[in-house]
Amino acid sequence: MSLLELRDVEVEYRRVGQTPLRAVAGASLSVDAGQVVGLVGETGCGKSTLARAAVGLQATTAGTVLFEDRKVSPLGRRARSRKEARLQMVFQNPFSSLNPRRKVGDQIADSMAILGLVPPGKRRERVAQLLDQVGLPANAAERFPHQYSGGQRQRIAIARALAAEPSVIVLDEPLSSLDASAQAQVANLLKGLARDLRLGLLLISHDLAIVRHIADVVAVMYLGLVVETAPTRRLWKAPMHPYTEALMEAIPRADGSGWLPEGLPGEVPDPAHPPDGCRFHPRCPYAFDRCLSESPPLIQVRDGRTVACWLHAAGAEERSPSTFAKRASAVADQVDRV
Asked: Comparing C-alpha atoms, which of 156, 163, 203 is closest to residue 182?
């Protein structure tokens, strides 16, 4: 059983005098204990909205979010129970997610007091343990967030999340505001925490290199939908969705060849007015008639891989005459050998 499971989640924003915007249009994914799931996609595809829905910060329009086999309800004024608090979130910007007026130790200890996890006399010791766990000295508890760098603040935010004794942490672009050195350090920290504490991590990122380094499984999102999920190594060796293939090909090559990636044709469609059929078909070089009229479901292909593409749909009678149709069977054979 997965610790966190999102089933056909939809999130719609109402806009006065305008068409409602479906930021998430039916996304599904799951996170298991000790597993890092990377969620990638272009800016505006709905990644952050899905992350907020996963922890109850954003109400869903349809679908279900389950945490430890219980439905996640939107956060209100009521305090969360101990079990609900085992689902935590780390936000993108550590400069704004920490209170600048309060000492670091007090902020880390908040959940211990609210949830009654640690007796008052032992909270100072527990804060020191958590700071050590994220690579900071115990005396950091007596300082304020502004006295630390961006990477150190993100470590503090992670320590604050760990104070609630979580089983799953959702991280929304936790490395994007950090420099390259800090990114590498925090990335290694997250990977170690997942392994050592058996934490499930849902890592939202647009940085494919970071996701490749950290994640066990990658979910690819396009225009509000998850279009492919696969173990990281298999995804990099043989992407099965044309959009995933385009993302892989867009990664710069630092080999001195001067090669530059070609951009996808067209623009990302307006999510308020998505195209009929497959949402990717206006930009897909392999689209055929069925893609223009029918939206492909997310189906399991093999070895835990899922893909929403008519080229891989079980029992599909129509096949594209394009190169990708011929490549599809070759990809399937390659996946079996990986």
From this structure: 156
